[in-house]
Amino acid sequence: MPNRPPPALSPLDPSSTEPFYRQIHERFRGAIASGVLKPGDRIPSARALMTELGLARGTVEAAYALLGAEGYIQARGQAGTIVTPGLKPRMPVALPERAPRSGSAAAGFRPDSILPFQLGLPALDAFPRKIWARLGARCVRAMQPADMAHPPVQGLPALRAEIAAYLQVSRGIACSASQVFVTSGYRQTMELIAHALLKEGDRVWLEDPGYPPTRELLGQRGITPVPVPVDGEGLQVAQGLKLAPRARAAVVTPAHQSPLCVSLSLPRRQALLDWAARAKAWIVEDDYDGEYRYVSRPLPALKSLDREGRVLYAGTFSKVLFPGIRLAYLVVPPSQVARFEQVSEVFAGGSPALTQAIVTGFITEGHFARHIQRMRKLYAQRREAATAGLERVLGAHLSIDAPPGGMHLVLRLKARRSDRRLAARLREEGLSAEALSDWAMDGPVAPALLLGFTNIETEAVAEKLGARILRLL
Prior knowledge:
Blueprint: H1 20-33, E1 42-43, H2 46-53, H3 57-69, E2 73-75, E3 81-83, H4 104-107, H5 129-141, H6 157-170, E4 180-183, H7 186-197, E5 203-208, H8 212-220, E6 224-231, E7 234-235, H9 237-243, E8 249-252, H10 266-279, E9 282-286, E10 311-316, E11 328-331, H11 337-347, H12 353-364, H13 367-394, E12 398-401, E13 408-413, H14 419-428, E14 434-435, E15 448-452, H15 459-472
Parallel strand pairs: 5-6, 5-8, 8-9, 9-10
Antiparallel strand pairs: 1-3, 2-3, 4-11, 6-7, 10-11, 12-13, 13-15, 14-15
Helix pairs in contact: 1-3, 2-3, 5-12, 6-12, 7-8, 7-11, 13-15
């Protein structure tokens, strides 16, 4: 049996949308197909490769299991694992390389990873999994044949009613269950709005800097984004009126502006509502983490001030529960219910009824409200710990904005450094980071990093991670 040392794997890409086990699988398969690894060659043990790559053993074993199932490798017990003897692999068909995505898309906004400082990721270690499992088991046992058919495309009636009741108490939004549409996430929410209310060539105000997928989604629909600058009071409505007074809509994050986390002031809220009423325009209120405010009670939703029926309220369970749930919701004005019912029948597929039933039980039994209260307290502690730990190590190189709400920090670089380059280096080192420059549309912004703090458990952890950042600086 050949016993030459195995070839070194090329570095894995932590920013890739491909999970690590898939990357390992592709590298070994490519080495076998190209002849770098020959039939009978020994490959590293899962334990050795785990140590070399700094990954969990289960990740490496998943890659090896896939290679074994496809016939590329064989386990020989004490003799180790080898490339299958007699294998005559065919070279894979060369596919055209995809051009690297530029700007915001390069970092990815739906990662399947769990990395330090990852944005939009709740404290998964604090999620009540036992309660969730109990509710899930109960829902499965209660399942009837009718529950196994296609789910209602607007959402389960029971869940829509629970969402409407929750919003009335927590966000001051008076709405009926018929106004609530359950979606599979923010992107589907925006797609429904675009199909129902917008058309190609329309102009839409977007916050600048702002959430990049919004402008990408609208651009794909032929809708023109109009970047409106943001300051300490949120969207500058006066600038929007100068740039596009007859815009068809505005997409805003009033509670905690994404990404600067400032709140839209009351005068600006009133000015925005006045413009929408006069221009017969729509306001999309993206309240992605409005529950999490640490210096006072959460601010009322912009929708609660709407008297003319111009505001559509978009919420999500991804930031409150966990991203894998793929559930969000949209509250539309009463005058638009029929239109959205018609559009959803055409374009919506309906979210899994079992997941919706579990969420309904989670809300009905009071677990949802208690979970939010616990997370609000926990995030306040982790926000303080992350800020203190990072400042202790990095204070000479950057300043930290610890906003009154939200789920991330803004680290402003003091020297003339590229935030894009630094964010890319952090991702190469297994840390998650977003460059503020990638969120800007019209002109440069002061370089800064956006780092999530919700999964930074202690100040000591923040210091250790800060030391890793310092080495890259």
